[in-house]
Design brief:
- With 434 residues, the protein is α/β, with parallel strands linked by helices.
- It has two domains: 252 residues, 3-Layer(aba) Sandwich (Rossmann fold), CATH 3.40.50; 147 residues, no CATH class.
- Helix content is 40%, strand content 14%.
- The protein is globular, with a radius of gyration of 25 Å.
- The N and C termini lie far apart (57 Å).
């Protein structure tokens, strides 16, 4: 009898603990029990959050080359915002590093709209997902798509509901190419401000900048660039001092870097939606002109220490980039031509001879033209990257393209005019209900 009594009390205690234990803790144990069964996942750590019931960072072991797994592995950082096993899941195909997603306040837009789980995937060769040693030959679009397929396959053992892929900028581009290589991995995709460039210097961005916004606004931008160049003699010492203090190094003379900052100014100005009212008058002091130039177009972008190196390698290899129109500024520039500047300035010497391969862009165009996957593309009207967007897609039942009027690279569902916003949400609700 005594033994039976102890067992009864034990079971009663467990039952009471189950009743009074917070549901979030029970869910946490359930999530951890499920995810820890996968031996390819390591380093699981809980994160503070007030946007999910639970949030974790972890690492998934990936092959350097998915076609040749014997060549080695690296660890890819993944951040999981858990809501419930019965909820939809958003996989964020980040194009860069995932550091910002660690913040307790962070939650991706679509996962919040539909109270969905979030699987946030850091791109290979960025931050904590950089192989050691860093062998650039494995940084390809196909390998990045294979990474995402591996992540999705892993987490589908936990989340069996609808799956949505999404990403911003290069992450949007990654979301598109992921769909191209694995069209059935997710139910639908929402790439934000995603370019589809055809070449290393695509050729569509320069004409775009010659017609963006109004004549008056474009003139103000160009006049500022000219003013910055006219004052180069007086501003260059400040520029040199700043670069020395920051310990920047460059592959070309500093005066040429100054010129590139001025050329970049118009692209960056429209990309981030800077108000034209913030452009200083031509009568402004050297300090004001100098500070505004750096606020929009900082020399760190062209430095050997740039955090964008992995992106530049991808751009040179197959993702593409943009060129500069030097015509209005030629008489003030120390550079003779900007052609091939990305290879010449942004890549280390051992990678300067990378040849651009057009196969990826052709594959993506063919996928969109011949197919009709469920996808919603979102762009900003004034964003120069929209020049290389898929705004040319017409008469598709499932592919939808939305353009935010006057919008920038910050165009999102939430920034759309209310009718368009509701239409986007309605389309996604319909897809989630099927």
């Amino acid at each position: 009898m005594k033994r039976i009594k102890i067992n009864f009390v034990g079971w009663l205690s467990i039952l009471l603990l189950t009743v009074i234990m917070p549901s979030s803790l029970l869910a946490q144990e359930s999530f951890l029990q499920k995810i820890e069964k996968n031996t390819s996942i390591t380093g699981i750590k809980p994160l503070e959050t007030n946007r999910f019931s639970e949030k974790y960072v972890m690492f998934l072991t990936q092959p350097l080359d998915h076609r040749h797994p014997e060549k080695g592995t690296f660890r890819q950082r993944v951040i999981v915002g858990h809501v419930g096993f019965d909820r939809p899941t958003v996989i964020v195909t980040e194009g860069y590093g995932a550091g910002y997603a660690l913040r307790s306040q962070y939650r991706e837009e679509i996962s919040e709209l539909f109270n969905a789980n979030m699987i946030f995937v850091e791109h290979r060769y960025f931050l904590e997902s950089t192989p050691d040693p860093c062998d650039w030959q494995f940084l390809t679009a196909e390998n990045s798509a294979e990474d995402l397929h591996s992540v999705t396959t892993t987490f589908k053992t936990l989340y069996s509901g609808k799956w949505i892929s999404t990403g911003i900028s290069k992450g949007g581009q990654t979301s598109l190419l992921y769909r191209v290589f694995f069209p059935d991995d997710v139910d639908f995709s929402v790439p934000y401000v995603a370019p589809l460039c055809y070449d290393l210097e695509d050729g569509r961005h320069e004409p775009f900048l010659r017609r963006v916004s109004t004549n008056e606004d474009r003139k103000k931008v160009e006049d500022f660039q000219l003013e910055a160049l006219k004052r180069k003699a007086s501003l260059l010492p400040r520029f040199e001092k700043l670069c020395t203090e920051r310990k920047h190094t460059f592959r070309i003379p500093l005066e040429e870097i100054y010129d590139y900052c001025v050329l970049e100014y118009s692209f960056a100005f429209w990309q981030w939606g800077t108000p034209v009212s913030q452009i200083p008058e031509s009568s402004a002091s050297d300090e004001i002109i100098f500070r505004h130039l750096l606020d929009i177009s900082d020399p760190s972008y062209f430095s050997a220490e740039s955090s964008n190196l992995s992106f530049f390698v991808q751009a040179a290899r197959e993702l593409g980039y943009y060129g500069y129109d030097m015509t209005p500024f030629k008489s003030y520039l120390s550079i003779k031509t900007s052609k091939d500047y990305l290879r010449h300035i942004m890549l280390p010497e051992n990678l300067e001879n990378i040849k651009f391969d057009k196969k990826l862009s052709k594959k993506m165009v063919k996928f969109l033209k011949k197919g009709d996957p469920k996808m919603i593309f979102i762009y900003g009207e004034n964003d120069p990257w929209t020049a290389a967007g898929v705004t040319w897609l017409k008469n598709k039942k499932n592919i939808h393209v939305f353009l935010e009027p006057g919008g920038s690279h910050l165009a999102r569902i939430s920034t759309m005019p209310e009718p368009e916003k509701q239409k986007i949400i309605s389309i996604m609700q319909e897809w989630l209900s099927k």
